[in-house]
Amino acid sequence: MNPNMNPIDVQALGKVAVLLGGRSAEREVSLMSGAGVLAALKAKGVDAHAFDPAERDLSELRRDGFSRVFIALHGRFGEDGTVQGALELLGIPYTGPGVMASSVAMDKLMTKRIWIAEGLATPAWRQVRSAAETRAAFAALGAPMIVKPVREGSTIGLTKVTTLEQCDAAYALAAGLDPMVMCEQFIAGDEVTCPVLGTGDAARALPVIRIVAPDGNYDYQNKYFTDDTKYLVPCGLPEGEEAAIQALVLQAFRTLDCRGWARADVMIDATTRKPWLLEINTSPGMTGHSLVPMSARATGVSYEDLCLQVLATAALDNPASLKA
């Protein structure tokens, strides 16, 4: 357990719902995350129960006496502020960032606009509404270029475009998942990720993980269903680089007013060694391949203790609603 945290009174946590599954394109991963979290919380003595919003109405959370919620949903209807808003109305504290922070972080365009306004480095991009605009973005941003849906996660619908001829299919794939599509400058170099735990001044960045995927292709399959990707923690970066990335990620977390936990993805330019923020995940994966548990483990925090720590941060944007 993190020695800086006060002991957690498990009984005071009350009856806990682990939201898992849901209706997003990431349902399969969410079921795996939720199963892991549920088992971990039960092992710590928490009165925890699985709750799939695709199969049950959220109003049943209040009816059945749940006192807090661990959100293990990923993607839409779970990570985008919608479930968070429902829980605010129900007055049930939940893990992870609040309504606005979750909504903004799910929207990669809005995230970039805010980060740029705050002076944080993120790759150049174009919003596109057609295959023709995608080809124009390719001419402007150069090759390779990333094409992806604005409001999906886990690299779903993402294409790395290297030729003009690939633009039409890349746009069609992304647009099939989200009417909002973006093209992004590709940064060649080290791919890393860094989790943040805590809220406000107590938030801290965990160790950076360097990701080495087969042929540099860290796609959905290599994220969750193969053992071919290597995750290096300690990351092997120069000490100054890791500290700079941790500081950048912590600033990105606070700029979006996140709380509880999140994980930011970063690319390090191979030539300049400059770190570039890609996106931030406000309901990180908790599967056997997931990165937040891996990073926490490097600091001596077990998977079970990590789940308990995150659960203990459950909160509401408007705590006064508890009195309603």
UniProtKB/TrEMBL annotation:
Catalyzed reaction equations: 2 D-alanine + ATP = D-alanyl-D-alanine + ADP + phosphate + H(+)
Q: What are the protein's UniProt keywords? A: ATP-binding, Cell shape, Cell wall biogenesis/degradation, Cytoplasm, Ligase, Nucleotide-binding, Peptidoglycan synthesis
GO MF terms, alphabetically ordered: ligase activity
Annotated localization: Cytoplasm
Q: Which cofactor does it need?
A: Mn(2+); Mg(2+)
Query: What enzyme class is recorded for this protein?
Result: ligase
Q: Enumerate the SUPFAM superfamilies for this protein.
A: Glutathione synthetase ATP-binding domain-like (SSF56059), PreATP-grasp domain (SSF52440)
Q: What is its EC number?
A: 6.3.2.4
Superkingdom, natural source: Bacteria
Q: Which residues form the ATP-grasp domain?
A: 112-312
Could you tell me which pathway this protein works in? Cell wall biogenesis; peptidoglycan biosynthesis
Q: Which family does it belong to?
A: Belongs to the D-alanine--D-alanine ligase family.
Q: What is the stated purpose of this protein? A: Cell wall formation.
Q: Which PANTHER family match?
A: D-ALANINE--D-ALANINE LIGASE, D-ALANINE--D-ALANINE LIGASE B
State the protein's name.
Answer: D-alanine--D-alanine ligase
UniProt source species: Hydrogenophaga electricum
Upper lineage ranks? Bacteria, Pseudomonadati, Pseudomonadota, Betaproteobacteria, Burkholderiales
